[in-house]
Amino acid sequence: MKLIFEKSISGRTGFSLPASDVAEYKLSDGALRAAAAELPEVSELDLVRHYDALAARAYGVDSGFYPLGSCTMKYNPKLNETVAALAGFTELHPLQEPSSAQGALEAIYTLTESLKEITGMDDGTLQPAAGAHGEFTSLLMIGAYFKKKGEKRTKIIVPDSAHGTNPASAAMAGFEIVNIPSDANGYVDTEVLANAMTEEVAAFMLTNPNTVGLFEKNIGKISRIVHDKGGLLYYDGANLNAVMGIVRPGDMGFDIMHINLHKTFSTPHGGGGPGSGPVLCKKALAPHLPYPLVEKKKDGRFGYRKTSLASIGRVRAFQGNFLVEIRALAYIIALGREGIRDAAEKAVLNANYMKSLVSEFLTAPHKGACMHEFVASCEKLKEETGVSALDVAKALIDHGMHPPTIYFPLIVHEAMMFEPTETESRETIDEAVAALKEIVAQAKTDPESIKKSPLTTPVGRPDEVKAARKPILKI
Ligand SMILES: *Cc1c(COP(=O)(O)O)cnc(C)c1O
Description:
The chain is about 35% helix and about 10% strand. The protein has helices at about 45-55, 80-85, 85-90, 100-120, 130-150, 165-170, 190-195, 220-230, 250, 320-360, 380-385, 390-400, 425-445, 445-450, 465-470, and strands spanning about 125, 155-160, 175-180, 200-205, 230-235, 255-260, 280, 295, 300-305, 375, 405, 415-420.
């Protein structure tokens, strides 16, 4: 397909305007571009067809099954879009006086209060723009907390099953990373943790359920090990899908955490954003939250809190990705307390249903029940047939579905990580499992055909290394 610039014909336009009835105004030289902007010159129809064709090639949750583990690609109810498109939200200016933006401030306040309730935390900010940004914000707060206490703590412990953003955020915030291996069953090895947990450690970053889809049953013990040495416990709450409405990180002993609104709270994501990664914390860390924070005043009106001198400062302009926050609030209000718990239970049920079917023909290295996602391995299949997790993932595209996450977590060879989410029906899961089963059977009889897939897409197998190392981002 041609780029829109390649469709450009000099002099062609996509609009016609009536002749101007006001005199031409000459701008001063400094206000004018030196050369005309290079824009494609196409007709309105060319433009519509171009973007319509591109849209038809894109694949999203609205197109079909999208079990991308760790990413929670659940369906986003359209009601949330309608609410976020209300003129009262979209036509606000971020610098408007609080007195003229009461509704927006109330929305921010109500969402923060709801998230505090869901997580069992005491305070929070909606400012960070994504999960990794929430981690970074939290780590700056952890740094500020120990600085104020006069303790020199330079290390952050991260398990080997952690999402890659955890060590990256800790390193960006100036900490040294201590990586600890999981035990044979995929859980935190509490003995290894106890040995690593010294008084130089500021925090232990944990995802629970962890990235292999298991709930750390020893969380009480883990919390004691960290707190006994004066450290803090950090919760990577990118996905709350398995636990929301059931257990709360604040009650498990966590001190600070982030949430991805663009995963659990039904905001469209993928393709680079926008997202939102609120940070929630216990009282002891609250003075370090970024500002401005919204408060409800005694007279019931909303405004900004007095800035704490210990605040780490702003981490983003204005109030973060405000319309993402509105979508999350609409979702939480629509579901309510019961609905949120119900969503979590169905997410776990769907994952376990799919896991039990898939483990009939692929290895599921972690025994027993999973949470909202599970890991299967193509290691044995690859030994027998030469067909890898990547090949199976590519073949799934030809069956009309998005592949699962592959080669993550790193601790499972030839990993495929499935997260069906609560919004999928049993029929959809059955169809996906049937497709997977067919591919595995075909790998045993005709491995070469699987290695050629996908055959139904405009682009088959892009050179992924080249795409990452030498991207061509403009012509
Ligand atoms: C997605 C994810 C993150 C990072 O979130 P971004 O919004 O992509 O920065 C961190 N941790 C876990 C467990 C995740 O699944």
